[in-house]
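Lay summary. Proteins are chains of building blocks that fold into shapes, and those shapes determine what they do. In this project we predict the shape from the chain. Here is one chain we studied, written as its sequence of building blocks.
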Amino acid sequence: MGIAIVFVVIMIAICAISLLFIKKYNDKIVSTLSSSKDFKKEISTNKSKKIIINKDNFKRMFISDGAYKLYASLACILAGLILGLIILICMNPSNAFYEFFVMLSGNVLNGGPSAIKNLFAILAKTAPLICVGLSVIFSYKSGMFNIGVAGQYVIGMFGALIFALQFKCPWYVCLLMSFVFGAIYGSIPGLLKAKFNVNEVISGIMLNWIALFFVNYSFQTYLKGCVDIRQGMKTYRITSFNPSAKLPDLGLSSQLGSYFTIAIFIAILLAIVCWFILSKTTLGYQLKASGFNKDATKYAGMKEKRNIVISMAISGALAAVGAALYYLADLEQWQAQLSNSLPALPWNGIVVAFLAQINPIGVIFASLFTAWISHGAGFMTQIIFPNEISSLITGIIVYFSGLTIFAIKIFKNIRQKRFNKKQKKIVKEGK
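And here is the predicted shape, written in a compact code that computers can read:
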């Protein structure tokens, strides 16, 4: 127990030293920039002072809003891991450290062929997480909270498996149809919000359960050719039933493991496309403007109701594609008879979205981290520590993420006060 306490103290000390280093490094950058030609100071009359850095200066990224969000996210992850370790120590001090590192390693860091297999298993779980995270981000940017992402995920799975098993279409057709199914289903809460001002959270929750039971009923009644009755109404494996519907592995599955497909590349491409739409297009500007102030966009001549429907349709399509990437990779079979609860994966999309600070590029890394520790938790000794410990740790991280806005504000205030103090000193020395 004494060793455990010492180790926790060391980790906290490392965290504190890291934060102090970052803080010191930022101060150096500020002092360097303050003496450069590209640095300008603007002091307003209302006690607020801003630092304006020329966009051509590369070093500005270290003191930008994005940098502070990154620092806050890393701090949340570190705090969550430390608190998770403390919980493990309280449960079983003798095995806590070993099992903790088993979870963090994901059974990848031990090397060998199994390491490669586990790595691509993690990437296979990362791909759908990226998509559902993008789904939450896209709607959130437009001022909508898409709690119906789970139902859209189920509908996307339904569309992909129908065309894969019933009509025996190739994978790209199945992927496209999941996109269409998700877009249509996602537009329903958008239309209800735009036309009747129905809260999207309430309609999304209701549509989640409608999607689940509609899919189960359809498989059990009208689409019996897609399910194996002998295996408890599980859908047939795509690899054996329709190999053309499985996502391509580029001929590398034999070398890199059966989990390797192009799903991760598709998910990353979608993240880049979402970032481009939201940051570089007129549509993205209008969607974000609607999220900031719907009344202002209305008076500015923007069609705010249309934007609501479009954002929810795209959000639903992204969630559906996430399901298609998961099931078309033949990672799992849908069990229509016993699926009386919504899948857990789409809910984790909400986790990665907020852990990524609502950033489409950041969701790639947040999804990888979440999939990594979830996969690693499966190798922990279940008798000692339950598999849900990874969910507990991610929940703690998300809880801390909710405080990042407050933390960023504190960091900025501290930095602003230090800058003001330096300016007063410069003025005094000039006199």
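What the prediction tells us: The two ends are 60 Å apart (CA to CA).
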